[in-house]
Amino acid sequence: MNAAFGGDPQDVRSWGRLDLLAPQADAVAAHADGLAEPTAGLMSTLGTLLQMNALSTRSELLKRRALALVEASYGKDHPNVTRDLNNLAQLLQATNRLGEANR
Q1: What is the model's pTM?
Q2: Which of 37, 56, 59, 87 has the fewest CB atoms within 10 Å, i.e. is most exposed?
C-alpha cells in the first residue's frame, strides 16, 4: 500500500491517483498502529494529502498519530520524528496556530 500510495501529496499532478487510494490508505493506517514504518510514512503522506484538500482536522489527527508512533518506536532523536514534527508544524502554521507550531 505504501508503494502504491507513494508520490508527492503537495503536487497536484499526484492527486488523481492519491485520491483514488486515500480510502484504502486510511483503512490500512487505522489498523496498523503497531508498525512504525511504513505506517507512519503512509499516515504522513495521507495527512498531507488531506491538508492539501482543506481537510485540516483529519490531517492533524493522522499527522499526530504518525508522530506518536515514530516517537514511541524510535525515540525523539530519530530523523523520522523530525519529518513528522515538520509536517505537523506546517499544518499548524497553515491553520494559523503559530503558538502550537513553535512548541
Answers
A1: 0.72
A2: 37
Task: Give per-residue pLDDT as tens, 72-89.
Answer: 888 999 988 998 898 899
Residue written as grid cell 502554521: 93
Shortest CA distance to 59 belongs to which of 16, 81, 26?
26
74-80: long-range contacts at Cβ-Cβ below 8 A with a sequence spacing of 24 or more? 74/36, 80/36, 80/37, 80/40, 80/41
Three-class SS state of 28: helix
Which of 64, 62, 1, 56 is CA-nearest to residue 30? 62
Measured distance CA(93)–CA(89) in Å, rounded: 6
Helices and strands per DSSP (H, E), number in the chain: 5, 0
Asked whether residue 33 carries a pLDDT value surpassing 70, the answer given is no
Residue 45: closest CA among 90, 92, 89, 84: 84
